Amino acid sequence: MVPETNSTSRAQVKWSVTMDTGEGPADGVIININDNGAFIRCRKPLRLSETCKLTIKSPDHAIEDVAAEVVWTNIHGPDDDLTPRGMGVRFTGIPEEEGRYLRKLVRGDGSIKEVPEVDLDVTMQMAS
Fold it and tell me: Which of 2, 9, 89, 93 sits in a 20 to 30 Å window from 99, CA-based?
């Protein structure tokens, strides 16, 4: 279970994400998200306080150029269903139009919308 660090509820999703890091691009899967941040499951989580740019592949289009900072990581922890390998990120910069789209998508009318999901196993294999 990912520790909740803010009071805004999170939408449970399985969306592909590409992280542009200092060491090049890396792929992962967003497991939960709100307009403040997300938990990204990935094989090689970044270190605490590292920054990256995200491209989030949401249902309708890619949300691009999202600046994020790692605020939680289990880089050395187990990688299982209870504690998947990954990291929590806080969004530090998102283009205004993309931010509105993300808020509408994850908040909507207060209900979680049905959205297409990625195959977590296939995406994780591609990310290795």
Answer: 2
Give every CB contact of residue 11 below 8 A, 6+ residues apart in sequence. 32, 33, 34, 105, 106, 112, 113
29 φ, ψ to 5°?
-135, 130
CATH of domain 11-108: 2.40.10.220
Could you tell me which of 13, 10, 16 has the C-alpha nearest to residue 114? 13
Q: Which residues contact 67 (CB under 8 A, 6 or more apart)?
A: 51, 52, 53, 54, 91, 92, 93, 94
Chain position carrying tokens 């094989």: 43
Residues 99-112: tens digit of each pLDDT: 888 888 877 644 44
Count CB neighbours of 72 within 10 A. 16
CA distance 114 to 128: 28
Which residue type does 11 have?
A: A
